[in-house]
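Q: Sequence in, structure out?
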Amino acid sequence: MAVDGVSGLVRFVWDRLLVGWHLLVHAPLSWIPVLGLVPILYVILRPTPSLLEAFRRYPAWRDALLVLVVASMIAYVVNDSGAAAVGWGFGFAAAGIFYLPLVEDSWRTARAPAPH
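A: Exactly. Output:
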């Protein structure tokens, strides 16, 4: 009985991964968010100097981006829509990585005193 339960679980997981694989095969642009999570995760864990400075000021921002990327990776595996489950997380994480340094830079220039 226990073997049927384990084999049933394995079959279920395999079916879910197969659905995700079919989506990737039939919609090639869906590879962008799926594979794009890896470099985004790398940038979050090893940020550029400007991003590192922003993360030091706002550590919760880094935590939020990290949770978003890891949750998207988990969503790819557990959700039967595969790449569609990753899309929102990828988009928001990419936007968050660009947003924080850009806004910080504009705040610094807006607050900087005008040269005489």
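The chain has a mean pLDDT of 84.
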